[in-house]
Amino acid sequence: MVTVSTSKAYHHGDLRTALVEAGLRHLEAGGETDISLRQLAREVGVSATAVYRHFPDKKALLAALAESGIARLGEAQRIASEHAGGGPAGFAATGRAYVHFALDNPALFRLTFTHADHAGSPTNSSDEPSRLLRSYSEQFGGENAERLTLQAWAVAHGLAMLMLDGRLPPDDALINRVIDTKSLFPAQPSGSNNDASP
Asked: Which of 3, 6, 29, 162 could crosslink 168 through cysteines, CB 3.0-4.6 Å?
C-alpha cells in the first residue's frame, strides 16, 4: 500500500507535496474518480485558489500522482535489485518488484500508466524503472538488448495486469515461476547466478 502522511491540515511550506499526498490517499481509498481538487483543498486547509496555483485542473493533479507512482515503483525495484545482489537475480527481482508494486498499489499502478508522459516504451523513457530495465538488458542482452527490454517489460506488466484483473491469482510462487531469468536469457554461462528466487 502507499504510505503517506495522515495529517488532515496543511501546516508547512510545501503545499504541492501536501496535495499530492492527500491525492494519493484518496486514490487508494476510492480511485481517481473520487479525487476532487476542492475536496483536497479542504482536506489540507487551504483555499481552492491556492490549489489551482499548483494544479490548474484535475488532469495536472493526476499527472503529478502518476509521477509519484513511477518514482515509488523505481525505488521499489532498485531496493529489490540491491537486495538480490544484482546480476541475473537482481534483474529478476526488479520484475517481481514491479508485479508486487502493482498488487500493493492497484489504483496508483493503473493511474501511473494512463496519466503520465513517461508511460511510453522503456526503450526511450527516462524514468528510473526504464533506466534500470535498460541497464540490465544491455548488460545481459548484448545485441538483443532492445528485445530483452521489451520482453521483460511485457512479462512483468502483463502478469501484473492479469493478476489485478483477477485472471490469475496473486501468488508469489507463480510470480517467481513466470519472472525467471532463464526464460529471459537462457544462454547464460554455467555457473552464472540464474536463481530467480528472492
From this structure: 162
